[in-house]
Design brief:
Glutaredoxin; Glutathione-S-Trfase_C-like; Glutathione S-transferase Yfyf (Class Pi), Chain A, domain 2; alpha+beta; 10 helices
Length: about 220
Amino acid sequence: MASRDQEVTLLSAWPSVFTMRVKLALVLKGIEHEDIPQDLGNKSKILLESNPVHKKVPVLIHKGKPILESAIIVHYIDEVWPETSPLLPQDAFLRAQHRFWSDFIDKKLFDSLIRFLRSNGDAAVNEEFNQNCLLIEGALAELGSEEEGPFFGGASMSFLDVLLAPYAVWIPGVEQVMGLKPAKCPRFHKLLAAASEHPSAKAALPQVEKLKEFIRVRFASK
């Protein structure tokens, strides 16, 4: 690998949606890195020093410098290693749209899924999550090309596809353990199905069965 690939470390927690997307970006681009799993109940010195503000994972450390927040990290990875599997579109308008929807995914989609888990399966929160999924469905119709492939990037995974790929394991996990009733979003579900079968995602994401056990212990037992 090129010299830019040297000294890449990921501070991670395997169940985290945000860790998963960073791992996927690294695998997609073939970036060799050291993965250091973190015990978030007993935060390590390296985590506290690397992310003193939020004290959260993931943290990407590249040549001794920490990069924080998963969407920012994925963007950074794409800028530093642009040659392989480019993620953000070249067109400035489309890049702006990707940034808009990345914000929506983190502030709306993720938030409603976590609140569903914490509410022990509240129907109103389920409906809110479904409305957010329907908005993703609309974004796919606007920005993607079904003829070219299932992803926002057509046949190839793009920035938004990397951010959404962890939901390919999280949505079925929550559905099977907590009774989530997903909305009918054929294009979004097709994207998630394609993501789950992508070789890089298979290498980067946990199995649904493993995640289901985490959900049972973390949420269903309360």
